[in-house]
């Protein structure tokens, strides 16, 4: 079993998430991009996360965030 993640307020994080079963679900079309951005922004507002940058590739994304309240695990 791995160590629990240390979550601190006022910290920067690089988050990498991959699609289920590594499928190529993040198509480069307007509808997919808008849906991805909408979900990212809603989650960031809900948990008090500042998004500094994000890149979505065909089966994963990388997002750099600033966590003001220590909520990165919820995000």
Our count of helices gives 1
Percent of residues in helices:
10-25%
> What percentage of amino acids are in beta strands?
25-35%
The total beta strand count reads 3
**Element order, helices and strands?**
EHEE
- Rounded to an integer in angstroms, the radius of gyration calculated over CA atoms is 13 Å
Largest sheet descriptor: 3 strands, antiparallel
Overall pLDDT metric? 92
Low-confidence stretches: none
Shape: globular
Overall SS class: alpha+beta
Instruction: Order the strands across the largest sheet as they lie in space.
Output: 1-3-2
Overall number of domains: 1
State the separation between the terminal residues, measured CA to CA: 22 Å
